[in-house]
Amino acid sequence: MLKVFVLIGVLIISYFSYLTWWKSIPEIPQIAFVLQNHFQKSGIQTKATSIPYSVGGVVAHIEYTIDDYPVAISVSVYQDENEAKKALDSIEQSPNLNFPIQNGELLLFLVHGEEDDMKKNILKAFRSLEI
Q: Using CB atoms within 10 A of its CB, is residue 67 exposed (0-12), middle (13-18) or buried (19+)?
């Protein structure tokens, strides 16, 4: 029985090691830069980082960080609007992913976010992006 737990542990560690160190980080798609420029025009200065992902239907996962703000903005770019809608339906059920919003093939959510003025500005800017 111990061998089974050790084997499962090794497999889990290997998988996350692959995602962390060996899997190439995908390039940031153009739509992510369009969103970043839109955030900046809305007064939200962000830095975009591409994050490795392993979710079906996802073209890219981008994390936007804001200086002196504890919560990153997570945006997934999906193959199409229908894939994003399916993901939105499942994300809305998660207690850890707050304020999920879909805009075309983009899906935004904040991890452990609280309602404050910055969140309102982020959500307003995301909603107003015309894709």
A: exposed
